[in-house]
Design a protein that fits this description.
The protein has 252 residues and is α/β, with parallel strands linked by helices. It has a single domain (3-251), classed as Ribonuclease Z/Hydroxyacylglutathione hydrolase-like (Metallo-beta-lactamase, Chain A). Helix content is 25%, strand content 26%. The protein has 10 helices and 14 strands. The strands form 2 sheets. A 7-stranded mixed β-sheet has the order 6-5-4-3-2-1-14. Strands 7-8-9-10-11-12-13 form a 7-stranded mixed β-sheet. β10, α7 (168-172) and β11 (178-182) form a beta-alpha-beta unit. The longest helix is centred in the C-terminal third of the chain and has 11 residues, at 197-207. It is globular, with a radius of gyration of 17 Å. The mean pLDDT is 97.
């Protein structure tokens, strides 16, 4: 059984700062391979306090979609934890060019603990211990940002990280059977480069995944009690939509 553990579902700075929702990112376990996505504030404590406990030394890699703090704040801490304080050289970090070299979020001394650092680019394929994933398209965000599509035994799992809506997203993430969408806004705001609920629904209706998981919620999503609207959203999109919550374990 493979799974995705949602260590946190906070989106954008105000929910992160207030910790109305935790901000620990997602822990994937697919075909026995464990890797971490977007380790924001609180990742380590959320992992070790998880039930069952998640051991960072079991990680094989870390994926950074972009350098904003709610996605990258604990990257160095998790590199140390993954490598047993740097005493066991292992693991690979996947990250955009700008968060490695232009405005780096990974400390130089931590880089030496890793087996490898991969600079991700759109339309390229990468792997973690034989688990293949694709970077389908560069997102439209204030910094260099990417999501991914993982092929797990023929099942495609897509992750749309922070982005403005643009039509090419739909083609880029087509064929995703499980689709995770960072949905920060309840209603669209001009000049804010995040998806709103209506845009997320449009993506779901066009792609038609078997399961769609909304996460990374901003303040307006919490004020509108998005978790109470699961059935309405599922009915509108004709898809089984899951509203993620902190600590949720999704098995597939």
């Amino acid at each position: 059984m493979s799974s995705i553990k949602f260590l946190g579902t906070a989106g954008a700075r105000f929910v992160m700062i207030s910790q109305l929702r935790y901000s620990g990112g997602m822990w994937f376990s697919i075909n026995g391979i464990q890797f971490l996505v977007d380790p924001g504030p609180g990742t380590l404590i959320r992992a070790v306090k998880s039930k069952p406990k998640l051991n960072p030394q079991n990680l094989e890699g870390i994926f950074l979609s972009h350098r904003h703090l709610d996605h990258s704040c604990e990257i160095n801490l998790m590199i140390e934890a993954m490598t047993d304080g740097g005493f066991k050289k292992k693991g690979v970090v996947f990250a955009p060019y700008d968060c490695l070299y232009e405005d780096p979020v990974i400390l130089q001394y931590c880089r030496g603990f890793l087996e490898k650092i991969e600079t991700i680019k759109e339309k390229n394929f990468y792997n973690i211990k034989g688990l293949t994933f694709e970077i389908p398209i560069r997102h439209k965000h204030s910094v260099e940002t990417y999501g991914f599509k993982i092929n797990s035994n023929g099942k495609i799992i897509g992750y749309i990280s922070d982005t403005s809506f643009f039509p090419q997203l739909i083609d880029a993430y087509k064929n995703s059977e499980i689709l995770i969408i960072n949905t920060v806004l309840y209603e669209k705001k001009e000049n804010v480069q995040h998806l709103c609920l209506q845009e997320a629904e449009e993506i779901i209706k066009s792609i038609k995944p078997k399961k769609a998981i909304l996460t990374h919620f901003g303040m307006t999503m919490l004020k509108n009690k998005i978790w109470e609207k699961k059935d309405i959203i599922s009915d509108r999109t004709k898809t089984d939509v899951i509203i993620a919550n902190d600590g949720m374990n999704f098995e597939f």
